[in-house]
Amino acid sequence: MEQYTPMIRQYLAIKAQYEDAFLFFRLGDFYEMFFEDATKASQLLEITLTSRDGGSSERIPMCGVPYHSAAAYIEQLIELGYKVAICEQTEDPKQAKGVVKREVVQLITPGTVMEGKGLHDKENNYIAALFCENDDTYSLAFCDLSTGESRTTALTAVEEVLNELSTLRAKEVVIAPDLEEEVKKVLKERLSVTLSHQDPLPEEDGFASLIKEVSAPAMRQATNLLFHYLHRTQKRSLTHLQPVEVYEVHQFMKIDFYSKRNLELTETIRSKNKKGSLLWLLDETMTAMGGRMLKQWIDRPLINQRQINERLSMVEKLLHAFFERQEIREMLKEVYDLERLAGRVAFGNVNSRDLIQLKKSLQQIPALKDLLLRIDNDEIQALSNKMNPCEELTDLLEQAFVDNPPLSVKEGGMIRDGFHAELDEYKDASRNGKDWIANLQQQERERTGIKSLKIGYNRIFGYYIEITKANLHLLQGSRYERKQTLANCERFITPELKEKETLILQATEKIIELEYELFIEIREQVKAFIPELQELSRLVSELDVLQCFAEVSEKRQYIRPELTDSRELVIKEGRHPVVEKVMDSQEYVPNDCFMNSEREMLLVTGPNMSGKSTYMRQVALTAIMAQIGCFVPAGEARLPIFDQVFTRIGAADDLISGQSTFMVEMLEAKNAITHATNQSLILFDEIGRGTSTYDGMALAQAIIEYIHEHIQAKTLFSTHYHELTVLEESLSQLKNVHVSAVEQNGRVVFLHKIKEGAADKSYGIHVAQLAELPRELIDRANEILAELEQKEQPDLLKQEKKPSNKIAESSGQLSFFSEPVAVSAQQPDHKEKKIIEELKSYDLLEMTPLDAMNALYTLQKKLKK
Ligand code: ADP
């Protein structure tokens, strides 16, 4: 230490307290970084690495960013998951004896950003804290610092913790340093969040009003960790934090993370974009806060019939009130993000333009309330009555600010005349001075006869009289003092001009000072309204989401679902909302789904690409849409309320956790089987596909039987294993349905229509044909198929085999396995069986024609041996 200069010693002392952050050390107009921070930041931010003498024998690596453009660099580091400690000079360098005092004024972390790119309008930015009580019981608290919303809940397994955190998309998790290493590892690996440590400290008095609803000691520990961390890092009063709300995960429909992803509720599987998701389809919200609430509703569908019906009734009324709805939409468009604004008021980073926006937003409220009263629905009227337009605040802002104030709050020009007497005096003085100068220009022009004479101003010389060189000779007799000579003119001053200048500048200085003081005062007054603004924001968001449901439902012709307590599920003319929107809706083939206590499970068969998973997803999406209170894409819908939805759809490798497709498949299956109840909905798409045929089929059958016997959840199970359709004979609550396809001129044409009974064959080769594999290969595959069809059926289902009730769509060939086939005398030997297996395992759609040719060639060679 001793070797370094005092400033570097100061740097090192501060850095020691912020080891896990980049320390932005204010030096004049720059934030500088030193040592390792500098080397690392210069790479990450692509800025030049230099060095500086710090007193030691070696020069110290250094890099820096200008103060005025620091925000963009900070954002970049935060996006990458790092933290940035902002260290400012906390005394005037002119007054300082020795090294200027410096202090960290804020630690910006991924979970605590308040502005900039890291914060998306329609997304919350959550920071969570996790407290582990003992093995497998956890309490989670979280908060969106930008909106002040905070909640807490208790969870009973790491899996649940992961689920909640990924639903919330928490960016940062605060933990006590003694949290088990195993849990830390899982959090890091599975969620890629920033982990931050906070020592458990006693509760502070200041938290009392925030945690009054939280009684469970473990939840209090979690919230306490969170609040201590926020105060330690943000170093300011966080008056906008809302009282922590306690919730339980089973108050809502549970949809685990895998299922949310599979159903593409808020983002698509492939591109991870909102576009193409249910959220994208539904998002007709007009405000940012409504957008965030919509996402929250989709993440947590309701399970309480009364609450669902309340929402549905409001949507219904709004749907029919077409004109009112359009007016509501227009008004909402003018409503600014009140919730985040309240946060920024508390944080102290608003300017007068924000406050004008606040005023304009509030001015919408009285008319909005009146409009809502015109709609005949108790809940909507209650919503209107609860909205407080905060008139006092509107008046204050109206009186205080001019309509178009400058961006900066430190250059005056914000406050309206008549708001403050002393300020008005300074303004007068400044205006009078300026008028005097304008008059002077006129007088001097007349006196000298120089028409181009003008009085200008710059920061260095103040006011001056400017004369072009050509006119200088006309100045004889003037008492002008020469001040500056330019290429084609000269600038002069006079004692009177300077006198006025002093008056004007003093007045301006006073104006700037006083306006800033008044601004801070008004901002403090706005602070007092934060709870009202937050409540208003909640009501406006709710209205926004409901009008959004009405808007989409009308546009896309959705209908109100009926929710019942029975075991019946009836969807007539149902559609997949997103697929329908993406394709021309004229072409979408609607389908029915009918389930009840005799039809708890549907086994869906049909060719690849015929629409099996679309059908299954549409049933799940319909249920979810109904339970968030939206109308549904169907002609008629009567649904039970599902407590949970599980899916196993598609073959997305979980690359992050490094698990294979098949492992993910099995994990998802396990998840459903361990947690589903008879009130749940399970979708299994092609389970068992990731392994060899017999293996896969055996597992699929066992899973179906297990659900049928032990769970009795409503289940849709699609499979390309035709052999499974015979299960209808032995399992009383399982029914076969299939997606129909017909052959026309040897080609398969998908009708996308769901019908009763099992499909007649699997059409795999036809799909290969559609994918335009070489003709020769297709012919050969047909030949092989024909040969195989003459041969054997697998042993697996032999003992159960009864005539199936399949419905044949075409008069095409008999299917491979599902028809009782005369077993030919010549059984394939072991080698042939293996070859058949191999052929069957080929995923033709994934092969290039050349690969397929080669594979076929090898198979044939083996057969000929
Ligand atoms: P499968 O699961 O049987 O392989 P998908 O459900 O993935 O088939 O559907 C394949 C494609 O067929 C979809 O991408 C969609 O374009 C189209 N499709 C599915 N269902 C319908 C339908 N009901 N109406 C029109 N097109 C549909």
From TrEMBL:
One GO cellular component assignment for this chain's record is: cytosol
* Coiled-coil regions listed: none
Q: GO annotations under biological process? A: mismatch repair
Family annotation (InterPro entries) = DNA_mismatch_repair_MutS, DNA_mismatch_repair_MutS-lik_N, DNA_mismatch_repair_MutS/MSH, DNA_mismatch_repair_MutS_C, DNA_mismatch_repair_MutS_clamp, DNA_mismatch_repair_MutS_core, DNA_mismatch_repair_MutS_N, DNA_mismatch_repair_MutS_sf
Picking any one GO molecular function of the record gives: ATP-dependent DNA damage sensor activity
What domain of life does the UniProt record list for this protein's source?
Bacteria
User: Which residue intervals define the domain DNA mismatch repair proteins mutS family in the entry?
Assistant: 680-696
List of residues binding ATP: 606-613
Q: Which PANTHER family has this protein been placed in?
A: DNA MISMATCH REPAIR PROTEIN MSH1, MITOCHONDRIAL, DNA MISMATCH REPAIR PROTEIN MUTS FAMILY MEMBER
Provide the function of this protein: This protein is involved in the repair of mismatches in DNA. It is possible that it carries out the mismatch recognition step. This protein has a weak ATPase activity.
Question: What protein does this entry describe?
Answer: DNA mismatch repair protein MutS
Q: What is the lineage of its organism?
A: Bacteria, Bacillati, Bacillota, Bacilli, Bacillales
Q: Which gene encodes it?
A: mutS
